[in-house]
Prior knowledge:
Number of helices: 10
GO molecular function: oxidoreductase activity
Bound molecules: flavin mononucleotide
Cofactor: FMN
Radius of gyration: 18 Å
Pfam family, one: FMN_dh
Keywords: Flavoprotein, FMN, Oxidoreductase
InterPro entries: Aldolase_TIM, FMN-dep_DH, FMN_HAD
Amino acid sequence: MSEEKWPGPKGLIPVTDGREDDANVHNRRYLDHMLVEMRVIDSVKPDLHTKIFGRTYDTPLMMPAFSHLNKVGENGRMPMEEYALAAKQLHMLNWVGMESDETFARIMETGADTVRIIKPFADHNTILEQIDFACDQGAVAVGVDIDHIAGKDGGYDVVDGMPLGPVYFADLKEYCQHSAVPFVAKGVLSVTDAVKAKEAGCAAIVVSHHHGRIPCGMPPAAMLKDIKKALAGSGVAIFCDGGLASGYDCYKTLALGADAVSLGRVILKPLLQEGADGVIRTVRQLNNELSEMMMYTCVPDTSSFDDSVLYEKQL
Ligand SMILES: Cc1cc2nc3c(=O)[nH]c(=O)nc-3n(C[C@H](O)[C@H](O)[C@H](O)COP(=O)(O)O)c2cc1C
């Protein structure tokens, strides 16, 4: 696999090594093996507007929860502010990952509707404080990336000197009750966790393995059908990410059951090279590809996806 798709300096930005235990490899393979039948009679140019957390956005594509992109560009802005500006201009939902309250406040100043994802810190007070800060700043939703627990040494991970820890069901329940805005469990890759997140009171889950944190992980999109069935009628929104590199990948993930999808490394290179302009160009391209595929399959709007158009090619 070419590094072109997963750009960035090794160490800072995860780069797939192409080994069989790298979940990114299986993810790519799964998406590539999903083929689509054609339904063009009665098809029209689709409407991409999508309701997320009760607000209507121009697309079901969302910005990623990125972190650690702190290098300020010549214009004085950090990459996380740049893609927030792109989100605002494209009228799409913005997400951010681990960052200080100060950085989060700067991102909110862009005016982009933003979801804050907080690390599963061992110190739960930090989580509660960051939830409160996000709510005060006007975040649309908050959440925890529950899949970032294990480190490579077999213990709890430590990020920027901050120890991470377990997220028990009772913790998740507390965060949901504590938050003044909808709470999201990011990093669900099983029906078991999806049901626990629902029972804890989460308003949404992100079906994801966080760019392949878990070795040998199932492709997130492959888990969607079962998770959707398990959460049917609950009102819990199901989002998904994982190696979406084109609007066609986004289409397949939406057809498989995601209510909206998160972009990730597909915007990293244009973001780091060109800032907001590069992100805007990339997202427009992805929206066009999504729209094209919806036209080929007679899907008039984002609430009308149908997985019966998909066929899994023999692996
Ligand atoms: C540089 C970088 C930083 C990230 N930081 C976070 C983070 O702080 N919190 C989080 O939940 N996910 C974080 N992620 C994971 C993304 O939100 C997303 O789940 C992941 O990249 C999967 O999408 P992709 O395969 O399309 O890249 C980060 C990803 C990258 C590439």
